[in-house]
Sequence to fold (178 residues):
Amino acid sequence: MNTPEIPANVNPRLSRIKKLSRILKLVFLLYFVVIGLLMVLLGGLGQIHFNSSIRIDNQPFNSWRDVPAVVKTYTGICCALYLLGLMAFYRLLNLYEKGIIFSAENVSQIRRMGQLAVFYGVLNAFLPVYAARALALSPTIPLDIISSPSFLAGCLTIIVAWVMDEARKIQEEQDLTI
Fold:
């Protein structure tokens, strides 16, 4: 059962939520457009250089060509996860802007953000193992997955989404009760 849109003039709190959603959407769009333009302009002019900040088992990499394919793949996956998370957050803001606060779609977007964060945390924990194998080094067992902020935040977000979904179902049942 879909939650109907609530007119903003009925509740001033809802109008504040809508206004905040619009502002956040604008800030996100401006931020990514400005950063994207700067990256393209500076990258096109040759101003962005690769620093040897990537270290795997204390081995620095001086250029992008020197970085193993597994690290490049990892970077691509992380960028994709980041963009998917931003898309889910943007969709959530769109729902809030429409006045749809507690719906199955909201829960779905929140759960999706949690799942992406968990996946990112798992990737961060296992990258050193796969990179070490690619570089023929001795891999270590990733025990830091439990303390990964992304993993923990993702798990908590999934729990919050589950609680919201259960509360939404209870509300639907109460709405159907005569």
Remarks:
- Residues 44-48 have pLDDT under 50 and may be disordered.
- The CA atoms of residues 74 and 123 lie 8 Å apart.
